[in-house]
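TODO from last week: model ABC transporter ATP-binding protein.
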Amino acid sequence: MNTTESAHGQPLLAARGLYKAYGSTPALRGASAQLRAGEIVAVTGPSGSGKSSLLHCMAGMVRPDHGQVMYGDEHLAHASEDRLSELRRTQFAVVFQFGQLIPELTAVDNVSLPLILGGTDRRTAHGQAHSWLERFGVLDRAEARPGELSGGQEQRVALARALVTGPRIVFADEPTGALDSLAGEQVMTELTAAARELGAAVLLVTHDATIAAYADREIRLTDGRTGALEVSA
């Protein structure tokens, strides 16, 4: 089976023939991948193989030099910055290796922020944020700022912020890379359970085979090119 084949219906998000270079350094050399609704797909490969570049292009954070990224029938490479910002605020969510929380805000304010930016009143946003913080076991840290949180707690707050809007797709770029193995597996268990409950798809970049095993499928990158698609055990 290759990266454009699956028995689960039409893709929600599809990248075809992506090329991306940063200066004279190529990151992607014709990479293709796709993601279907409710699917968890791991992107693996050695350091420097283009994993994060593929995720960033598929999330609309970076425009490829050549190739297509289709979200349903929408060309993301042709979308305006306003449209891409709207998608990232309402339908896409991104989780990074280091949670990238706003250091001046408390945990509950960090989680509430996407809702408030979308027009939800503060009280309602805080109520939903508290529910997600409780789900991820960090409700008791709601008033703490990122600098007062452990790495695992910070990543749980970042997951709550990502999921509070009910996104269709979660882009997770090495979400456990800064955690020890136990905390990493706990975070992945919580992420996959929450995504499946929401019916959200997850595109997961990881170098860790243990973390990749949480996915339904695996796409391997080598030198910016996608290889065979593997079904996780």
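Done. The first helix runs from residue 51 to 58.
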